[in-house]
Amino acid sequence: MEDRFALLIDADNVSAKYIEPILDELSKYGNVTYKRIYGDWTSTNNAGWKEELLNNSITPIQQFSYTHGKNSTDSAMIIDAMDMLYTSELEGFCLVSSDSDFTKLASRLRESGKTVIGMGENKTPAPFRKACDIFTVLELLLEGSMSENDAVARSQIEEAVVKIITENQNDDRVTGLGEVGSRLVKLYPDFDVRRYGYSLLSKFLESFPKLKLIQSGSQITVTLYEDRNRKEQIEEFIRRQIKDAGKHGVSLSVLGNRIRSRFGDFKVRDYGFSQFKQYIQSFSGVHVEEDGENNRAVYEKKDDNK
Fold this sequence. Notes:
Elements: E1 4-10, H1 19-26, E2 31-39, H2 47-55, E3 59-62, H3 73-87, E4 92-96, H4 103-111, E5 115-120, H5 126-131, E6 134-137, H6 154-170, H7 177-187, H8 201-206, E7 211-216, E8 219-224, H9 228-244, E9 250-251, H10 252-263, H11 276-281, E10 286-291, E11 294-299
Parallel strand pairs: 1-2, 1-4, 2-3, 4-5, 5-6
Antiparallel strand pairs: 7-8, 9-11, 10-11
């Protein structure tokens, strides 16, 4: 059975041109059982919505502007949402507005275990975006409006995925494409591959040099791409540093600085480890000795001939 959603639209802060993309996007998540839009329908400002209401079976809720300059639709929309929360069997809410006044409502609905999908124009303040489980920028739903402006940096996305994969590897778990997508949305509620010019998450991830996708039947896993030549160079460098240090070994802090000086952007998580000490201990014939506040990497005697 599909999840049931209530669609609540703030007509004062969203243009009517988005209605079809909104409904298409929301259909990905479940069945829309309530479709309501809030505004002052005696005002000419909302004239663009009137034809769309009938065409898309959206129920208009009249809210007069009692105070000049105050968005009076907020209270009506919030009251209806809370009524639905307690009287209707819904799995989630879609709040469509570019107004931060709905931040508290989004947080309250999530506290009650409901999925909250937010949609708003690119001007929507960060607090409302982050209060939602998922936030979609409406401009992205219009063909030809894709833009990386104000999006999370690609390098930041890549590093987040590398961290997810490394954490799973430490727990002997593979990383599925679906898990990557869901965790990226949890980290960045307004994450959307369409911002970067892609329609599929898989194609977006394939554009990163550190990531590799493997398909087995219908399952797609995401793993780290290992540049074996570079990996072997780094390992040979580390072994040589430890061996040349003799029986006293070399401190991990000094070794780490030497590696970064030689190999620039070296990060242990690129090789499946969360700590530098664990990475060094993975080398055969090498052990780490505690030396006060410092740890030292030392070759075992049986490996002296290597």
